[in-house]
Amino acid sequence: MVDHLANTEINSQRIAAVESCFGASGQPLALPGRVLLGEGVLTKECRKKAKPRIFFLFNDILVYGSIVLSKRKYRSQHIIPLEEVTLEPLPETLEAKNRWMIKTAKKSFVVSAASTTERQEWISHIEECVRRQLLATGRQPTTEHAAPWIPDKATDICMRCTQTRFSALTRRHHCRKCGFVVCAECSRERFLLPRLSSKPLRVCSLCYRELSTQKQREEAKERCRGSPGQSAYLGGTVSGASSGDEDDSDEDREGDWPSQVEFYTSGVSWSAFHS
Ligand SMILES: [Zn+2]
Ligand SMILES: [Zn+2]
Predict the structure, then answer these.
(1) Across 155-266, where does the E strand assignment appear?
(2) GO molecular function, one example (predicted)?
(3) Which residues are within 5 Å of ligand 1 (an ion), measured at CB?
(4) What is the mean pLDDT of the chain?
């Protein structure tokens, strides 16, 4: 595809430019054989609202970050190894067109492109890279994906009890297993989800029951095999009222897009793929 770009001067310059935009806040990106294939602005659906994010597609990783100053300064860099990525096209909504989901074991999220053509370009380029990465590493595609978080705005009531109405005082929480927006009462439990974190995470009551049952079944199976029981902390109820504050701690710390910036008319050039 763009193998001829590997280890070329132009490719090194492009990668150096990306590194310099992220500055000290980003990771070194240059690696022997790594090629920067394309870049562009996509709209990422975050918990509170959809925000523009700069995306860079390399032959082995997808990098994105928030835009401080277009083509000058980016921050909050995220790096996703492509062999972990699965894409899922999504239907259009009234608010958003040209959407698709980027799914990995750790995190899944929805992005949209400025046009159908751009969406097609991104999807086909990413899928081709994923295919090549899987071939090169001999890995199987990831089948278990993190549930994307349902945006806050999608619901005014708890999606589990359907009773609690959210307000400034009654905060929304997200189940880390199913991604549903739930009330504090419906998400009192914590469970260890090793793919997501080394610490037990907030889960809704339904997921907690399912995860516990599954866990018990696995433990019973272990006992039958006669292996010594392992006592690991696997979760439990959190005592006391939950303030909900910790929900902010693992939100993307990406900051708000300054509302006075007219993004669509600011002369940002859209996605470009190198050939
Ligand atoms: Zn509830
Ligand atoms: Zn859940």
Answers:
(1) 173-174, 181-182, 189-191, 201-203, 235-237
(2) phosphatidylinositol binding
(3) 158, 160-161, 164, 183, 186
(4) 84
The predicted structure's pLDDT at residue 249: 35
Starting from the CA of residue 204, give the closest ligand: 2
pTM metric for this prediction: 0.77
**Phi, psi values for residue 122, rounded to 5°:** -60, -50
Confidence of residue 269 (pLDDT cuts 50, 70, 90): very low
How many angstroms does the Cα of residue 109 sit away from the middle of ligand 1? 24
Domains in the chain: ranges and CATH: 3-146 (2.30.29.30), 152-248 (3.30.40.10)
Closest by Cα among 156, 173, 179 to 109: 179
Say if residue 233 is exposed, middle or buried (CB neighbours under 10 Å; 0-12, 13-18, 19+): exposed
Q: Give 8-67 pLDDT, tens digit per residue.
A: 999 999 999 999 999 999 999 999 999 999 999 999 998 888 999 999 999 999 999 999
What tokens were used for 197? Answer: 């974190």
* Torsion angles phi and psi, residue 189, rounded to 5: -90, 155
Identify the nearest ligand to the CA of 209 by its number.
2
Find out whether 195 and 107 touch, Cβ atoms under 8 Å: no
Contact 47, 176 (CB under 8 A): no
Residue 96 CA to ligand 2 centre (angstroms): 25
CB 271 within 8 A of CB 41: yes
Q: Which of 65, 64, 14, 54 is nearest to 35 (CA)?
A: 14
Tens of pLDDT along 162-185?
A: 999 999 999 999 999 999 999 999
